[in-house]
């Protein structure tokens, strides 16, 4: 289980896309116009900066219910674009992997990963 998930997290696709995810969750696309453009906005009550306001008991209960329902937005850690991985590293690993096998023949774009135990890979 751990080995398969580790291989998935270290795959070229995840390496290539991880910086975009970091920008959305912890980075500059968490708030402001960049968040609006990325359709990455949440209820104001879920942002940590809005949780320090004084409120009466009913508002506090409503806020807690919203956080329990929607979740809490993490603290913004980065204010600029997260760096992308080295393209040569990602490209090199992709070229060494076998072509992906289709998962469902009628669905395009869905493929098995290249992890231990995947169809076409050693067990």
């Amino acid at each position: 289980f751990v080995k398969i998930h580790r291989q998935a997290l270290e795959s070229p696709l995840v390496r290539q896309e991880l910086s975009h995810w970091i920008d959305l969750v912890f980075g500059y696309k968490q708030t402001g116009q960049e968040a609006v453009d990325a359709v990455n906005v949440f209820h104001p009550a879920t942002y940590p900066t809005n949780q320090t306001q004084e409120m009466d008991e009913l508002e506090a209960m409503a806020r807690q219910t919203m956080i329990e329902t929607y979740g809490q937005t993490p603290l913004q850690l980065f204010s600029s674009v997260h760096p992308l991985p080295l393209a040569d590293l990602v490209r090199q690993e992709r070229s060494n992997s076998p072509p992906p096998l289709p998962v469902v023949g009628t669905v395009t774009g869905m493929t098995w990963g290249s992890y231990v135990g995947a169809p076409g890979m050693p067990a």
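The CA atoms of residues 5 and 115 lie 8 Å apart. The mean pLDDT is 78.
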